[in-house]
Each structure stands twice: as structure tokens, then as C-alpha cells.
Amino acid sequence: xxxxxxxxxxxxxxxxxxxxxxxxxxxxxxxxxxxxxxxxxxxxxxxxxxxxxxxxxxxxxxxxxxxxxxxxxxxxxxxxxxxxxxxxxxxxxxxxxxxxxxxxxxxxxxxxxxxxxxxxxxxxxxxxxxxxxxxxxxxxxxxxxxxxxxxxxxxxxxxxxxxxxxxxxxxxxxxxxxxxxxxxxxxxxxxxxxxxxxxxxxxxxxxxxxxxxxxxxxxxxxxxxxxxxxxxxxxxxxxxxxxxxxxxxxxxxxxxxxxxxxxxxxxxxxxxxxxxxxxxxxxxxxxxxxxxxxxxxxxxxxxxxxxxxxxxxxxxxxxxxxxxxxxxxxxxxxxxxxxxxxxxxxxxxxxxxxxxxx
Length: 358
Hints:
Layout: E1 7-15, E2 22-31, E3 36-40, H1 47-55, E4 62-67, E5 70-71, E6 82-85, H2 97-107, H3 112-125, H4 141-153, E7 159-163, H5 171-188, E8 191-196, H6 199-205, E9 208-213, E10 216-221, H7 223-228, H8 233-238, E11 243-250, E12 253-256, E13 261-263, E14 274-280, E15 295-306, E16 310-318, E17 321-328, E18 344-349, E19 355-357
Parallel strand pairs: 3-8, 3-9, 6-7, 7-8
Antiparallel strand pairs: 1-2, 1-4, 4-5, 9-10, 11-12, 11-14, 12-13, 14-19, 15-16, 15-18, 16-17
Helix pairs in contact: 2-3, 2-4, 3-4
């Protein structure tokens, strides 16, 4: 085990003087060396402020920032062993790719031969060695993103901070870059701290994800933890799509208002009469071929949405309560096989896929 976390945030907070509002509140977090760690949340949740405090661009109003056990709270960015990749890339258009990547090394006075070797190795790593003499203006968005990454990594930082670097790319390129970025991180072994509001990015690339809400960490864990086992209604609704069905817990079931009782089994710590939200992912609900011991109910199809590989059904369970069901177009691949509005259907789900959130 490493002696210290790569990054430790010790009760850090940031309050802005003009408004008195907190962007980050009394936050504690340890990030392990070599980890791909993502800060995920909606706009204004504090994730970028947190990243900028790690990088030294913003000073916390309380608490401490430690890198590898060293308190760097008062140090400027150039005195911290971190580098940042911004969404804008910030490349020098008049310089070649090689000179862009070499820029930081030249300012540090690194020997010319070492610069040539490190720049060549880094451009090869991001698969741009054959374009070393080109100018940034001649590159695609994905290639410019790789140059910005190489320029940050060539300095061998202890921690690389990435502030939504893929946001400007189109969907297909963004998905390809997600895979490539994770491969590069595994190869070099540097700690990555990645800021995004895109749940798919966080799930695809991260070793751990911190879901942020109003300046605090709502939940932190592996991608599977935060998606499959959300601990709050905010995490359940923000991480992908989740059906949040309100009701009252009583005798091992959630009783919907003016609707059926949905069995969920005994729940430790929940007293009868507690108001709860039942959380079930759309892809976890079955519409046929039910297995024994599955929870079952009936509903009425309101709408059918065909999306190529999948079909989404909106199904009314009770007045004002509609759930979304996502089904692969395998068994019901033809239009005439699918349900349409007004039809009654049976629904079922496995008990482990149903979460009761207080």
C-alpha cells in the first residue's frame, strides 16, 4: 500500500465573498495513487471548483489540500506536481505538435536531447508521432485533444487533472476517446482526476466515481456501486435513468398512493408508515418469461418508443405514477409483436434490483 494518498482533501470548503454561497462544503476525500477518479455532477455542484483547488487555481477558504502527504494548500499551480488538461486544449497554433508538447520542458531547462526523446515517446503514446511537424490547425478535434494530453503528461506529473476535455467532441469521437484515454492512463500509471457531467463517461473510464450535489459528495464508489446501489434519490436519478416510485412502506411492501402494493421484503431500519421512493432501473423490469420469486404487478401501456435496438414502454401503474421499461428488440422484434397504448401488461423484477430509498 502507498504511504500516502495521491490526493487528500481534508475538510476543504470554498465560499465566495460576493454572494456568501458555498461552492464546496466541508469535503473529505482520498484519491489513491494510479487511480482514475471522476468527479461527476450537474452544473454548479462544485466539481470544477474542487478540481481547481487541487490544481492551485482556487484557494480554499477552509481545510487543506495534500499531494502525496505534502500540504500544498498555499502553493501556486507551478509549484505543484500536477498538470491540467482543459476543455479548450489551449494549444499554440504557431508551433508544431512537437514544439507544443515540448513547451513545458523547455521552460524547465531540460536538456535538448532529453526533450527530443520524451516528446517523441509521448507523441507515439497518443499515436501522433507521424504528425510531429504538423500545426494544430490541421488536426481534428480528437487529435488536438491528444496533443493537449501529451503536453500535460510529458512533464511527468504526479496527478493529471482533466476538466471536461471531451465535451467539445462529437458523440462517436467522444466514445472512442473515452476508451483511448483509459488505456493511456493504465499504461502510464499516473493518477487521473477527471471532471464530467456525463454519466456514461464516468461509468466507462473510472475506477471510482464521486457523485457531487450542492458542494458535497452524495456518494462515492465504483461505477457499479453508484449505478446499481445508489444510496439516495439524487444519485439514483442522476446516474442514468431510474424509476422513482413514491409510496408508503408497510409490512414488507411499498403501497402506492391510490395504487397497488409492491412487495419488497423486510427492510432493516424502516418502520411501517415511512414515506419512501422505490427505485428500479428501466432495464431491470421484465415484461415476459418471469422467474419464480420475482415481484409482479400490472399496468397499462401509455406510450411505446422504438429506438432501433431497444423499445421503451411508458406504463401507468396508478393515477399519476408512470414507469419506464426498456426492452431489447429480440423477442419482440416486429412492430406487431410490441404492445401499444391502452393495453394491459404484467411487469416483474428481481428483489435485488429494487431499492427502497428513505
